[in-house]
Amino acid sequence: MRLSPRLLLFTIVPASVLVFAAAIAVWGDNGLLVRHQLRESLASSQADLADLDAENRQLLREMRTMRQDPVVLERMVADELKWGREGDVIVQFDE
């Protein structure tokens, strides 16, 4: 069976072009699958950024408190460095 040039020109070629274009739209460099992965990555990055912003705000509050209250600063240093004044008793519990 021999395909007529007219059938080839008006049916098979346009259908092949459409299939190829659809494949590129789904699996190409900027296709739907890549866009979906980028959206997921963006959402994850935004969640990470929100966590970092919250941590940053907490650290800024701690810094402000340390600057304004020397007793709080001394307590934080004592906790972090296991430091105490002469005569203080430091009790440390192992986890």
How would you characterize the overall build of this protein?
The protein is mostly helical. The chain has helices at residues 5-27, 32-68, 70-81. The mean pLDDT is 88. The chain is built from three helices and no strands. The chain has one domain (8-81). It is rod-shaped, with a radius of gyration of 33 Å. The longest helix has 37 residues, at 32-68.
Give the gist of this structure.
Helix content is 76%, strand content 0%. The chain has 95 residues and is mainly α. Helix 2 crosses helix 3 (70-81).
Strand content: under 5%
Helix share, percent:
over 70%
Structural class: mainly alpha
Query: Can you write the helix and strand succession as a string?
Result: HHH
Q: Characterize the main sheet.
A: none
Radius of gyration: 33 Å
Instruction: Determine the oligomeric state from the structure.
Output: single chain
Whole-number count of domains: 1
> Terminal Cα separation, in Å?
83 Å
List how many beta strands DSSP finds. 0
Number of helices: 3
Shape: rod-shaped
Mean pLDDT: 88
* Low-confidence sequence ranges: none
